[in-house]
Amino acid sequence: MTDLPARRLLLVHAHPDDESINNGATMAKYAAEGARVTLVTCTLGEEGEVIPPHLAHLAPDRDDALGPYRVGELAEAMKELGVTDHRFLGGPGRYRDSGMMGVEQNERPGAFWSADVDEAAAHLVAVVREVRPQVLVTYDPNGGYGHPDHIQAHRVGMRAVDLAADPGFRPDLGASWEIDKVYWNRVPRAVIVEGFARLRRDLAEPGRLPFERAADVTDVPGVVDDHVVTTEIDGTGFAAAKAAAMRAHATQIEVAEPYFVLSNELAQPLFTTEYYELVRGGREGGSRESDLFEGISGRSFEEVQNGTGL
Ligand SMILES: [Zn+2]
Questions:
Q1: Binding site for Zn(2+): which residues?
Q2: pLDDT (tens digit, 9 = 90+) per residue, 100-141?
Q3: In the prediction, which pLDDT does 65 show?
Q4: Collapsing DSSP states into helix, strand and coil, what is residue 218?
Q5: Which of 72, 102, 263, 281 is the most exposed place for a label (fewest CB within 10 A)?
Q6: Helical residues (DSSP H) of 172-250, grouped into ranges
Q7: In this structure, what are the phi and psi dihedrals at residue 57, rounded to the nearest 5 degrees?
Q8: Confidence of residue 215 (pLDDT cuts 50, 70, 90)
Q9: CA of 207 to the centre of ligand 1 (A)
Q10: How close are the terminal C-alpha atoms of the chain, in Å?
Q11: What's the sign of the alpha-carbon dihedral 292, 298, 300, 303?
Q12: CA gap 153, 159 in Å, rounded
């Protein structure tokens, strides 16, 4: 553990594919720069809808084999992003996809939505104390768009930030660690409105795109007024890696750059600049940050390099 890279980024997501859609360019960029990028995915995405007809048998109401299949898709996506540290919260299959809000799967034993938040957070505390990230990325309190697993990932992620920093909490899980900065995934309204305008123009040209209809701004998670966004990561150089990672999730996503569709077949823009709201930790001045690690003091970098506290 004493040879951890200086910069360490932890992302907490609900299902395989969320990381590539939301943060694929960011993850690829920091991995390429030598930062330690750790992904914790809370469920296997067992309740997802399957796009390719030849894989329809994996669905939960048929073979119920989508979870293990998506473990493989996620591994392929991580190869595309150059990320080597990806884990499932509590181990693969510990928590099951809860399905959309209001369905009976929400209350199924083992469903992530019905998990005890502190118990689930303890699994994440172990990862935080091992990897010692300066930065954590997750969703806003509504999970970006109200999916139970995304809301729960937010709760578990934020709870783990506090518990990991508390020396009195589960010392058996490692020495306490304070995360400097916490971000929520965001999309500025002006960017998404412009993106959909471009998409609708492209859809109007016959044969240009393999998709027929556009989604709506309200279908996109995490959209906020522009001033709420504190940070943007220019992932232009990692556009191909992000698209390839999204394609690796073939049961869930179809990509035709710079657009993609989910199982609802409604096209939306694929962004290679990714946006964030800083919710914990300080920021200098009023302009947008261009680096998630901006302003972090040398202290938390040096601490691990010198082995202090390990
Ligand atoms: Zn999801």
A1: 15, 18, 150
A2: 999 999 999 999 999 999 999 999 999 999 999 999 999 999
A3: 97
A4: helix
A5: 102
A6: 189-204, 239-248
A7: -65, -15
A8: very high
A9: 30
A10: 8
A11: positive
A12: 10
**14 Cα: distance to centroid of ligand 1 (angstroms):** 5
Measured over the CA atoms of residue 82, residue 88, residue 91 and residue 93, the dihedral's sign is negative
Residues with CB under 5 A from ligand 1 (ion): 14-15, 18
What's the gap in Å between 164 CA and the centre of ligand 1?
A: 25
Distance in angstroms (rounded) separating the CA atoms of residues 119 and 156? 9
CA of 58 to the centre of ligand 1 (A): 18
Q: Output the CA 245–ligand 1 centroid distance in Å.
A: 15
- Picking from 56, 53, 278, 41, the residue whose alpha carbon sits closest to that of residue 179 is 278
Q: Measure the CA dihedral 136/184/217/59, to 10°.
A: 50
Residue 175 alpha carbon to ligand 1 centre in Å: 31
The Cα angle at residue 298 between residues 295 and 303, in degrees rounded to 5: 135
Predicted pLDDT of residue 285: 78
Please say whether the beta carbons of 56 and 277 come within 8 A: no
- pLDDT tens for 29-52 read 999 999 999 999 999 999 999 999
3 state DSSP class of 45: coil
Binding-site positions: 15, 18, 150
Q: How far is the centre of ligand 1, averaged over its atoms, from the C-alpha of 181 (Å)?
A: 23
Q: What is the mean pLDDT of residues 76-90?
A: 98
Residue 229 is encoded by which pair of tokens?
């966004």
Q: What angle do helix axes 18-32 and 66-81 make, rounded to 10 degrees?
A: 30
pTM of the model: 0.95
> What is the CA(150)–ligand 1 centre distance, in A?
6
Tell me which H or E stretch contains 88. Answer: strand 85-88
| 53: pLDDT strictly greater than 60 | yes
